[in-house]
Design goal:
It is built from eleven helices and seven strands. The chain has a five-stranded parallel sheet, with helices on both faces. A two-stranded antiparallel ribbon has the order 6-7. Bound molecules: zinc ion. The site of zinc ion has 7 residues, from loops.
Length: 274
């Protein structure tokens, strides 16, 4: 029997390190990076370029996916299940991979894949301290109401993803960003074992330094804009701690008000070590 394509689906909130995680995982020779496939139609309408240098419509991976729905502008998860699965199948075929990382993060799309016998779903729930997430969002969102909404979404998404997992038997791995950056090499090894792929840590020079090949990457905005702009080929992974600075106290207080005490279940504490 032919093996089903496997999707390592990164769930959780934006601004949690999912672009970096997808880059690290896809250095494995058998794992392709599908970026945030859910946004591919929206990105086309915004004129986005792929990290391979081509316009999305001309990209070897995204061109065939986009040609399935030439005038579509909606997010993938809003389309009928057969249209969504067709997009995944075409993307898999274009990458020639049997395993792909998808950083779409939408719970609805995760549920759709969970109910699709055509794919083997591995749900990787990436969780980051919601105060750090809020400070990161505050740098790209000027509007306080939108920021509050993002904080409420952080809680709502975690509740929904946990509900999705409970009693489902789905392959599921919760992962804190803070644990990932503390020991990325060991974390990637753990994910490879969990996802049933042959261990390969050859990209790592040390526990926290990895060489990054962009040859097989097809990422596009809204993947992390700094990562896309810098296209680093060697990265030193370290926890981003700028969110703890005094100037972000107001944003942290807002995130604390909305996300705590719920966030304590992931080991986050009210003290931020200032
Ligand atoms: Zn491309």
């Amino acid at each position: 029997m032919r093996q089903k394509p496997k999707v390592i689906y990164v769930a959780g909130s934006g601004r949690s390190g999912s672009t970096m995680l997808s880059l690290l995982l896809s250095q494995h020779p058998r794992i392709a990076n599908l970026g945030q496939i859910r946004d591919v139609f929206l990105a086309r309408s915004n004129g986005a370029r792929c990290s391979c240098g081509a316009l999305l419509g001309d990209c070897a991976v995204w061109g065939p996916v986009l040609s399935l729905r030439p005038s579509e502008t909606h997010r993938l998860g809003t389309l009928p299940q057969d249209a969504v699965l067709a997009a995944y199948c075409v993307a898999f075929k274009a990458t020639a991979a049997r395993v792909a990382v998808d950083s779409s993060k939408s719970v609805d799309l995760c549920r759709l894949l969970q109910n699709a016998p055509e794919v083997d779903l591995y749900c990787l729930n990436l969780i980051r301290d919601p105060r750090a997430v809020a400070v990161s969002w505050s740098k790209v969102l000027g509007n306080q109401d939108l920021l509050r909404k993002r904080c409420r979404n952080w809680v709502a998404r975690q509740k929904r993803i946990e509900q999705l997992e409970q009693g489902s038997g789905m392959h599921y791995l919760p992962l804190r960003y803070e644990d990932l950056v503390r020991d990325p090499k060991a974390t990637v090894a753990r994910i490879q074992t969990w996802a049933g792929v042959t261990p390969d840590l050859s990209a790592f020079e040390s526990t926290t330094v990895a060489r990054i090949s962009w040859d097989h990457q097809h990422l596009f905005a809204p993947a992390n804009e700094t990562v896309l702009r810098e296209r680093a080929t060697r990265i030193q992974i370290a926890e981003a701690v700028a969110w703890k600075a005094a100037k972000h106290a107001q944003v942290r207080a807002m995130a604390t008000e909305i996300c705590f005490p719920f966030a304590k279940r992931y080991g986050y504490r009210l003290e931020v070590g200032l």
